[in-house]
Please model this.
Amino acid sequence: EEEEKIVFVSVLAGKNYCYHYYDDCIHIVRNPVAMPYSAVPKSYRKGCKHCAKGVKPEPTDLVYYTKGGGKFHMDANCSEITRSIESMNLEEAENKGYRLCTTCKLRHDG
Model:
């Protein structure tokens, strides 16, 4: 009998995106770094659509960003950072329309 494969999914505002083989994938583990906006890497200067939409921080304003996130946050408790993680079997995840995370695929195939 084949062992049931358990995967991890993050649920954000009811949207189904990816399933993950690893519960420590950078796309589901969010450890925000706090820093002045002026110190945020240029590639992270786009604001989060949930907590920073239309906001232009001052250089000294404290903002947050996460590795692999690609945007800054005004709130460390933003739902994009603190998303909830659920586990389910692989077949269920695929039936719900989730697709395999490309980072997990590279790690798995690597």
User: Anything to note?
Assistant: The chain has two domains: 1-26+84-110, 29-82. The helical segments are 90-95, 102-109.
